[in-house]
Write a structure and sequence with these properties.
The chain has 4 helices and 4 strands, in the order E-H-E-H-E-E-H-H. By secondary structure, the chain is of the alpha+beta class. The chain has a single domain (6-84), classed as Glutaredoxin (3-Layer(aba) Sandwich), CATH 3.40.30. Belongs to the glutaredoxin family.
Amino acid sequence: MSAPKVEIYTSPWCGYCTRAKRLLDSKGVQYIEIDVMAEPARRSEMTDRAGGRTSVPQVFIDGQHIGGCDDTHALDKAGKLDPLLGIGA
């Protein structure tokens, strides 16, 4: 089974972005980081994909919107993040 595609929309100096990336890093997950400050056109893409949510970070696993930092940490705490990431499967 191949590793899932993980994407995270971020901006510099965003503490929540750092926390979300730190969680993914702690799990050894490779992800594609999309900096919406460096690529402003990607912000509207993010908003469309995230169902209108405009804040960063926004995390996607295999195209499925997971949510922001708190949502990602809540999934992890509930034991539901690792299966989405293909960890322990």
